[in-house]
Amino acid sequence: MLYIVIPVFNRKEFTRACLHSLQQQTTLAFTIVVVDDGSTDGTGQMLREEFPAVLIEEGDGNLFWTAGVNLGIRRALREGATQVMTLNNDVLAAPDFVADMLAKAAQHPTAVLGALELDVATGQPVYGGETLDWRTNTRHDLLAQLPATQRHGLHPVTYLPGRGLLIPRAVLETIGLFDEKHLPHYLADFDYTSVARRHGFPVYCNYDAHLSTYPEESGQEITRRRRSIRGYYQHLFGIRGGGNLRNFTWFSFKNCPRPYLPYFLLNGYARRLVGYFLH
Question: Where does the record place the Glycosyltransferase 2-like domain (predicted)?
Fold first, then answer.
């Protein structure tokens, strides 16, 4: 049984739209768990009134992404989930999204699967996974490499984001939950899927399953649009900082092969120190 875990904090309208897209799936063989981390905009009331079938877990506003997801996963496992999918609330699932993810999971029962992401405004693909060369800290965007005729089926990747990430129970039982202690918000999803791959679980981006996203609404994009000294500090050291140096260091020591670690760290630090002002 598939359980879809969605961590939310305010942004009620995004959550409503996301849940409506899940209600319109061609298969409804799943249960939704929403982790409401102390929302103050009426999210909890909206969930209870408009989506009574949704299971709700609540936080006090200090869970952030990783602990919120873990809270939902624990609930799903207690309920008997055989598969868990983590999903952000600022996505819209295509009508056959869940059906295609389940179909691919049936063919590859030990694989961790992500989805092709489209821009909600244009319908154009914006993210289809990537591979990472640890030696040079160079990321290779699959969308830039694959011709349109090959943008279907499963493609192996180094890691995956947590929005639309299908995880078999066997993976959770083998490597545990997301690393909320060291990676409370960003990089927890890339870390988790990297660890899963190293434990022998294939990691694929499923180009036949589509999610529509709002690229301009990501936390990192909003921070960069409001450049300031305070924003720069938050970028490098804040829990929600996309360039958080502590998180990057932990991710690197945990995942990068030791011979490549010194250069990988130096290159990554340099990118984070200057990248805030370049994007």
Answer: 4-115
